[in-house]
Amino acid sequence: MVWLTYAVLTQKGSFALPSGVDGARLEIVDGAHLRTVVSEHARAPSATIPAALAFGETVATLFRHGAVVPMRFPTCLDDKRAVREWLDDESDTYRDLLQRIDGCVEMGLRFRPPDERHARPHPQAGGPGHAYLAARAAPNSVALSHGERIAAALRDLYRDWRFDGQVEGFASLCFLVRQATLDDFVERCRQTARRTALPLYVSGPWPPYSFAAGERASAAEPPRAFGPTSRPSTAASRSGNGAGRERDGRAP
To answer: Is 182 helix (H, G, I), strand (E, B) or coil?
Structure first.
């Protein structure tokens, strides 16, 4: 038997637990300072899309009751003693992270950078190999530049932000947004889209997967942890400019 871990959270309050992956019953395991939510399985669940979505829904439900640090799926330990030992060994790192993300949600923002392929190229030193690498890096450089301008327009409405690169021509940004400023954040996105004539697709709110994953790298995760750390696209979405609407992380 193994214990699948879902998230680390603080030891305050009590609430009804939802079902876990494969309908498993959830349990809370308390450490000296923090707690984690787990479910028991005969073997580590397979990293299928339905299982990952079920995991994400469970984490989202837990997140409604306060800050959580989501785990990778599927992250398993052999018994509850191992769960407690891991939780206590890494409690300082997780307490700092929980304090940082408390009261915040993750919002995703996608946009298609303007096509600047026809701009006059800068002279390249270093021969054809260097020029090739520079050409490969140029799209991300353009997208990052636009992302920085968007982040500047949204300043004072988020705690942190990150550039997630490009997929299928769309650049992705993620923001750690205070729940108290969430509506203002979405409205500022609409204003920015109108002012720049650049359609912005805003999705969320999610538990702060991206920011938990980055900071969590300094902590030793439980053994047998594997699989993606990115947020599952399970939350309803919000449109940044009224012209488009994202659902499940995909622009129309």
So the answer is: helix
Residues 17 and 71 both lie in one domain:
yes
Dihedral pair phi/psi, residue 75, rounded to 5°: -105, 120
Strands 160-167 and 34-41 turn out to be unpaired
Distance CA 161, CA 181 (A): 15
Cα 176 to Cα 131: distance, rounded to the nearest angstrom: 36
Cα–Cα distance list, 120 to 112, 116, 189 (Å): 20, 9, 31
- For residues 190 and 198, give the distance between their C-alpha atoms in angstroms, rounded to a whole number: 10
For the entire predicted model, the pTM comes to 0.73
Residues of the domain holding 144:
104-207
Domain end point (choices 101, 132, 165): 101
Q: Are residues 52 and 132 in the same domain?
A: no
- Condensed to tens digits (0 to 9), the pLDDT of residues 227-241 reads 333 443 333 334 333
Domain count within the chain: 2
Instruction: Say if CB 208 and CB 104 are below 8 A apart.
Output: yes
